[in-house]
Amino acid sequence: MAFTPRVFSGIKPSGDLHLGNYLGAIRRFVPLQETHETLYCVVDMHAITVWQDPEDLKRWTYEIAAAYIASGLDPSKSIIFNQSQVMEHAELSWIFNCVARVGWMERMTQFKDKSGENSENVSLGLFAYPSLMAADILLYKTTGVPVGDDQKQHLELTRDIAKKFNHDFRKQIKDLGFDEDYFPITETLATGPAMRVKSLKDGARKMSKSDASDMSTIYMMDDADTIAKKIKRATSDAAPLPETADGLAGRAEAENLVGIFAALSNRSVDDVLIEFGGKGWGAFKPALADLAVSVLAPIAGEMQRLVGDRGEMDRILRDGAARARAIAQPTMDEVRRIVGFIR
Ligand code: AQP
Question: What is the pLDDT of residue 143?
């Protein structure tokens, strides 16, 4: 059976959005709305796998939806919604909890990273997180997901769940009139080079919402002075910039800053180094700050406007949820029949 080319992705409202979320995720979502059916979700149910203050959760949910729209997602083309408004995510995730094996979850490196030494004491939801992610994706029979490297293992697990479901319920799926698989085997979508933005203070760590230091992270809603100050104080090294990308090897912080410049200006790293090779940080950092402000300031301005208009944001999220439900509900009706639930 041919599946409709459909894209799903989401961001957790677990902190203020940053440049990594923009370059690594949101910006890559935009062109896909021209070629695919697209669903972009604010995954609030994922966010609460670790403690979230309820007021912050709401604020960040609006902020992400606003960032999607301010960055170019069009609510009349893309379905923009928050996960908890479509309860079928939770229901399918429970069924997947009963399909997936504990050993599969135990192998997830992100769980090990996030739980650290404390794995007995984290929420059960954090452990089952990949099962909810599989439900997010498969509820819409998503064919492609634009994920970064950090999510590849979770996507692999989504495929394992789809394969096991398709296999375990082969007879019921056939009885329902499906010749082959019920769920697609979702692919990673290539959307150009995936930029991993690193902390401004440590080129070995990714820029993250939950970083304790504000100076490590450029937030999408930082003002121009704050962006300039953070870039000025970003960790760099004493050497001038090299002439080519090869010369960045072993210079993680330099590689990060040049990579950010290249991504923000849609140029290759080599091209950026043709301009800046041989120059010092005193020349490069102000140019990077100006560039970052020129890209982020208009988006931040539009985000401010949108988050200030709760009525409009609620309308967009409710409309998105209704359109998401229109796809999700027929799927869940079939899934219930496949597993043998009486309705
Ligand atoms: N530093 C980054 N560089 C590139 N892409 C990034 N993403 C996150 N950080 C970077 C991408 O943003 C999307 C949303 O991710 P998420 O909200 O589900 O959570 P995350 O990846 O765990 O992001 P954070 O910011 O690090 O959140 P916390 O601190 O709460 O865990 C994903 O597509 C991700 O690849």
Answer: 96
What is the pTM assigned to this prediction?
0.95
For the question of residue 209 being annotated catalytic, the response is yes
HSE at residue 182, side-chain half, CA atoms within 13 A, is: 29
Q: How confident is the model at residue 312 (pLDDT cuts 50, 70, 90)?
A: very high
User: CA-CA distance, 196 to 191, in Å (whole number)?
Assistant: 14
Helix (H) or strand (E) holding 269: helix 269-276
- The pair of structure tokens assigned to 245 is 């990308």
CA count, 13 A, side-chain hemisphere, 72: 13
How many angstroms does the Cα of residue 282 sit away from the middle of ligand 1?
30
Distance 111 CA to ligand 1 centre (A): 14
Residue 210 Cβ < 6 Å to ligand 1: yes
**Inter-axis angle of helices 124-138 and 152-168, nearest 10:** 70
Q: Is the dihedral of CA 70, 75, 77, 79 positive or negative?
A: positive
Of 108, 149, 118, the closest CA to residue 25 belongs to 149
pLDDT attached to residue 45:
98
- The confidence score (pLDDT) of residue 151 equals 84
- Locate 260 and state its tokens: 């950010």
Residue tagged active-site, from 164, 201, 206, 229: 206
Cβ atoms of 276 and 239 within 8 Å: the answer is: no
Q: What is the distance of C-alpha 112 from the center of its chain? A: 19
Q: What is the pLDDT of residue 336?
A: 98
Write down the catalytic residue from 12, 141, 198, 209.
Answer: 209
